[in-house]
């Protein structure tokens, strides 16, 4: 069955293509034939830990990682099962820990990033947001990883397409060429800091605690039973284990409405009606936000 052209499929396609280009150090530069910005020396092993249900955050993190090194390793912690095993980082690594902003904080998942174990490992924290704001995401991630053996040496906020917006609005085509230049500038400053022998934690403003009681705006779910072939991909890939693998029913007490199930469904059986949120999001987030960073 041919899938409909949708916001979901647009994000899925562009994320896969751009992430692949980013790992070769080319993301964002080919489209406008703009020379790649000057990048930091590529000698450090970079290990990226990411939570990214619809791949936008992973895409942005890949683009950033390419500014630091050609030697990049990923630990994708999106699926519930991926967070059950310890992920270790060496002292000589550079860690990048990235998450999307869910109402101004990281997704409300108990234990997110607590399976990461550093060894006084320098760490950059990343917030991906849909042209809105990072708010407390930096502080959330920093609070967690600082207890896990990491030293937060920098933070950066990257604009990505908002999952509720149409393909031409609210973060479309971000990160872009200009964003790449700022990311390269940030990477250069971080590498200068590390090469100077100064591995000191920065001060990050914001509330470090996650508000698990906070109500997060969500689009209504849609399920087309006639399209479902019972493949179980939605259950296997659910970020919180909210989908029963036998019945494929969703436990709403566990679901965080991350849209992961619709992203991995190849038969358009699961989707979200984002139209009900679209006008509000596109009206509120029409002005383009810039990449921000802290060192």
TrEMBL record:
InterPro entries named among the record's database cross-references: 4Fe4S_Fe-S-bd, 4Fe4S_Fe_S_CS, Flavoprotein-like_sf, TAT_signal, TAT_signal_bac_arc
Record-annotated 4Fe-4S ferredoxin-type domain positions: 219-245, 246-275
Domain of life: Bacteria
Protein known as: Tat pathway signal sequence domain protein
Species, as recorded: Holdemania filiformis DSM 12042
GO molecular function: iron-sulfur cluster binding; metal ion binding
A Pfam family matched in the record: TAT_signal
Keyword Cell inner membrane: no
């Amino acid at each position: 069955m041919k899938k409909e052209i949708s916001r979901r499929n647009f994000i899925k396609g562009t994320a896969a293509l751009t992430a692949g280009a980013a790992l070769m150090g080319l993301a964002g530069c080919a489209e406008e034939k703009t020379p790649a910005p000057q990048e930091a020396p590529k000698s450090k092993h970079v290990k990226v830990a990411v939570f990214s249900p619809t791949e936008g955050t992973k895409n942005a993190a890949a683009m950033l990682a390419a500014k630091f090194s050609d030697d990049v390793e990923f630990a994708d912690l999106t699926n519930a099962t991926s967070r059950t095993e310890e992920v270790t980082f060496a002292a000589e690594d550079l860690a990048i820990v990235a998450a999307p902003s869910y109402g101004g904080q990281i997704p409300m998942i108990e234990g997110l990033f607590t399976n990461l174990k550093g060894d006084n490992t320098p760490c950059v924290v990343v917030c991906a947001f849909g042209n809105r704001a990072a708010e407390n995401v930096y502080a959330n991630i920093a609070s967690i990883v600082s207890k896990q053996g990491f030293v937060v040496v920098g933070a950066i906020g990257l604009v990505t397409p908002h999952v509720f917006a149409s393909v031409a609005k609210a973060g479309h085509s971000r990160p872009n060429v200009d964003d790449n230049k700022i990311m390269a500038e940030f990477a250069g400053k971080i590498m200068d800091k590390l090469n100077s022998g100064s591995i000191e934690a920065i001060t990050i403003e914001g509330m470090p605690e996650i508000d698990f009681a906070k109500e997060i705006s969500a689009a209504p779910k849609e399920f087309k039973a006639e399209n479902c072939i019972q493949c179980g991909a939605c259950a296997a890939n659910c970020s919180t284990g909210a989908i029963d693998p036998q019945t494929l029913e969703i436990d709403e007490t566990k679901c965080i409405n991350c849209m992961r199930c619709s992203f991995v469904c190849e038969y358009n059986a699961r989707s979200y009606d984002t139209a009900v949120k679209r006008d509000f999001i596109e009206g509120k987030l029409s002005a383009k936000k810039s990449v921000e960073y802290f060192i």
